[in-house]
Amino acid sequence: MCKNIILNRLREEREMRLRGGLYHFTQIKFAYNTNRIEGSRLTEDQTRYIYEANTISTGDNQTANVDDIIGTIQIVSKEAVLQKIKQDTYMKQIQ
Fold this sequence. Notes:
2 domains, two-stranded antiparallel sheet
């Protein structure tokens, strides 16, 4: 019975998008610990800030939107892949 009470509370808080509740707390802890295990150097506060505001501090009281950072990485990665394909194609042509 006790498990159902906790599970119901977690579901309710998730649906309400309640900040500061049990669900919010467990999501931040889970994200922080999972990423830490995988080698992330983000602090728990930085992880919480990403979760709550979708931004990360870049220093001097400035922030960057996480989606912008991810988008930039994806563009750079695509450009690197395209460059590799071009190099491989060129090498095949000159061989």
